[in-house]
Design goal:
Order of helices and strands: HHEEEEEEEEEEEEEEEEHEEH
Number of domains: 2
Mean pLDDT: 85
CATH architecture of the largest domain: Sandwich
Strand content: 25-35%
Bound molecules: calcium ion
Structural class: alpha+beta
């Protein structure tokens, strides 16, 4: 009897595995690609409420939504994952307090953006700047250009400009790097603006907060959606930009679900029952499991017979 129970439990477990739709196991494909590059901080910006912006890097370096004009729960800019939302900015920002972990001598900033306008004007995507004057780095929109500028230890800016890289209401993946001596920008996985030689950045030696969506004093705010903002302590390569973008490939469309199976009488008197609306694979699976159960039952009955 115990053996029969074991067989039935196994059969039910198999049926459950087969019946749970595969979409229930769908997970983000972009997040692990980012985390694989060990970001110092990674803001997915998927909060539905509250003022804390969680850090998905595993380093617990949360930021704070601040300023009056930002909207949580904007449509995700990831093609592969709609459930982790984004933030629509128009004056607010995410502030991340100054800390020693920001003081990298080589670094990368990355985000998905969807500007609501590319008209003349500036909108900061990610910056590390103090409220009044000097700053460390600043990735921004200027009109339709992407501009990456980093202040060096001589208090001068080194700048990469990607002309006309942005279109209004169109998403773009942006990665900007500083190796300590060379700055690069990749928009949608393609380098633009060329290699720019740069002096050593001030970044390792300053005490300034980081902010997403505006400068640290709230000015030069970005108008539009920002998503999946990350900061790394190394200069990532174009191959990694490509890998992140590839990881965000749109999922295969879900196949049309089979209609509920229906048992119908296809011939009257005597009634011949037909199972409709079930594809061959599922019918074959059920039949196969049935055969397995029968084999086990025969074994159990046989062993009872031998005992008798
Ligand atoms: Ca997100």
């Amino acid at each position: 009897m115990r053996r029969l129970k074991t067989v039935l439990v196994v059969v039910w477990a198999l049926l459950l595995v087969l019946l749970v739709p595969s979409s229930a196991w769908a997970v983000s494909t972009y997040e692990p690609a980012v985390v694989a590059d060990t970001p110092l901080a990674y803001y997915r910006l998927g909060e539905a409420s509250g003022t804390s912006a969680a850090d998905a890097s595993g380093n617990s370096r949360s930021g704070t939504y601040t300023g009056s004009t930002y909207t949580l729960g904007a449509a995700s800019l990831l093609a592969s994952e709609s459930t982790n939302t984004a933030v629509s900015f128009s004056g607010g920002r995410v502030a991340v307090s100054d800390a020693a972990w920001m003081d990298a001598s080589a670094f990368t900033v990355e985000a998905l953006v969807k500007p609501s306008t590319v008209a003349a004007g500036v909108g900061v995507i990610i910056a590390r700047s103090n409220p009044t004057s000097y700053e460390s780095f600043d990735l921004r929109r200027n009109g339709s250009d992407v501009v990456w500028r980093v202040m060096n230890t001589g208090f001068a800016y080194n700048t990469v400009t990607c002309s006309g890289a942005l279109t209004a209401d169109t998403k773009a993946h942006i990665m900007a790097t500083h190796s300590g001596s060379v700055m690069k920008v990749y928009v949608n996985g393609t380098q633009c603006g060329g290699d720019v030689s740069a002096s050593a950045p001030r970044n390792p030696s300053i005490n300034e907060a980081m902010s997403i969506g505006a400068l640290g004093n709230g000015s030069s705010s970005f108008a539009g959606t920002i998503d999946e903002a990350a900061y790394y302590g190394t200069a990532l390569t174009e191959a990694r930009a490509d890998a992140h973008i590839a990881a965000d490939a749109e999922p295969e469309p879900e196949p049309e679900p089979d209609p509920d199976p229906v048992l119908t009488c296809t011939e009257a008197s005597p009634c011949v029952m037909t199972l409709e609306g079930q594809d061959d694979f599922e019918v074959a699976t059920v039949v196969g499991l049935g055969v397995l159960v029968m084999i086990q039952l025969v074994g159990v009955i046989g062993s009872w017979g031998r005992r008798g």
